Automatic annotation (TrEMBL):
<protein>
    <submittedName>
        <fullName>Protein CapI</fullName>
    </submittedName>
</protein>
<dbReference type="Pfam" id="PF01370">
    <property type="entry name" value="Epimerase"/>
</dbReference>
<feature type="domain" description="NAD-dependent epimerase/dehydratase">
    <location>
        <begin position="11"/>
        <end position="266"/>
    </location>
</feature>
<keyword id="KW-0520">NAD</keyword>
<dbReference type="InterPro" id="IPR036291">
    <property type="entry name" value="NAD(P)-bd_dom_sf"/>
</dbReference>
<dbReference type="InterPro" id="IPR001509">
    <property type="entry name" value="Epimerase_deHydtase"/>
</dbReference>
Length: 348
């Protein structure tokens, strides 16, 4: 793998108002004065747009940031953006997220995750980029019984349409890497959390409900384990990956070997959902989001598993560590403490 020097580069980030996208933009803009960051987002109403606006506001103070409100499913618009800015590196984070929502609203997933990603691939083909990095998901592992999940495992059994679209992205990227020698790296993210995160994620939803004196439902009677990964760890992983594309080389037949890689980015330390709720509740009290005498037991309901969900997610991060000298390591309590403090500030 050859290192790409990010200085003087133009980097296109789709989903720039999203949780991971905005944090990645911010890190790039803070660290590099001479990097141009082009952010695209359609600002849809899947969750509270004011959080997306809050994230974007932290980026607008940088003069080397350009924001374009656009849908990646609009092929003409994407081609125009590539034509105008000629990005060296593309990070595709725009996607319709969420497992449960894919059961209610499948159209959104086909439009954004399939058509949108296809448009990005086509643009990368016609405007040669040095590296395409794109978001996949731990959900591609479906109901795999073997843990930790390894990128060498077969992932042919998705249990949600969302997972199926993400697996499709990996297959499409492989085809384009093979056909057009586009260096591409897919990242399977594991339950990302932190300040200004996605309100549809459990920790955020639980907090909203507890604040409103509602009952939280804990699925699979609490027998769920999740590899919770703090946002700064995810961004650090993406930053390192961006700079080291898979190398272009030819096989014995003289044809290109696809410059194609996939990595897990997870905490490699699954937490039990009940322990997670316990830590979250303690940190919400510490941050004075909830009163010190809050009765959690009265607000907790253990319920069966939901369709599309899996009982455990657990990342094998050895390849990430081997190739990039990095693995996520933020302890859950530290991450939830930062979230609780942010929540208190944002909603006050």
């Amino acid at each position: 793998m050859e290192n790409i020097d990010l200085n003087e580069k133009t980097i296109l980030i789709t989903g720039a108002a999203g949780f991971i996208g905005s944090n990645l933009c911010k890190r790039l803009l803070k660290e590099y004065d001479n990097v141009k960051v082009i952010g695209i987002d359609n600002m849809n109403h899947y969750y509270d747009v004011s959080i997306k606006e809050y994230r974007l506001d932290t980026l607008f103070k940088y003069d080397h940031f350009v924001f374009i409100k656009e849908n990646i499913a609009n092929k003409e618009a994407i081609n125009k953006i590539f034509d105008e800015y000629k990005p060296h590196i593309v990070v595709n984070l725009a996607a319709q997220a969420g497992v449960r929502y894919s059961i209610e609203n499948p159209d959104a997933y086909i439009e954004s995750n399939m058509l949108g990603f296809y448009n990005i691939l086509e643009a990368c083909r016609h405007y040669p980029v040095e590296h395409l990095v794109y978001a996949s998901s731990s959900s591609v592992y479906g109901s795999n019984k073997k843990v930790p999940y390894s990128t060498d495992d077969k992932v042919d059994n998705p249990v949600s349409l969302y997972a199926a679209t993400k697996k499709s992205n990996e297959l499409m990227a492989h085809a384009y890497a093979k056909l057009y020698n586009i260096p591409s790296t897919g990242l399977r993210f594991f339950t990302v959390y932190g300040p200004a995160g996605r309100p549809d994620m459990a920790y955020f939803g639980f907090t909203n409900k507890l604040v409103n004196n509602e009952t939280i439902q804990i699925f699979n009677y609490g027998n769920c384990k999740r590899d919770f990964t703090y946002i700064d760890d995810i961004v650090e992983g993406v930053m390192r990956v961006m700079q080291r594309p898979p190398e272009k080389r030819n096989g014995e037949d003289g044809l290109p070997i696809p410059p194609y890689k996939i990595y897990n980015i997870g905490n490699n330390q699954p937490e039990n959902l009940l322990d997670f709720v316990q830590i979250l509740s303690e940190e919400l009290i510490n941050a004075e989001v909830l009163p010190s005498d809050y009765d959690f037991e009265a607000h907790k309901e253990l319920v069966p598993m939901q369709p599309g969900d899996v009982p455990v997610t657990y990342a094998d991060t050895a390849p990430l560590e081997r190739d990039f000298g990095f693995k996520p390591s933020t302890p859950l309590r530290d991450g939830l403490r930062k979230f609780a403090k942010w929540y208190k500030e944002f909603y006050n």
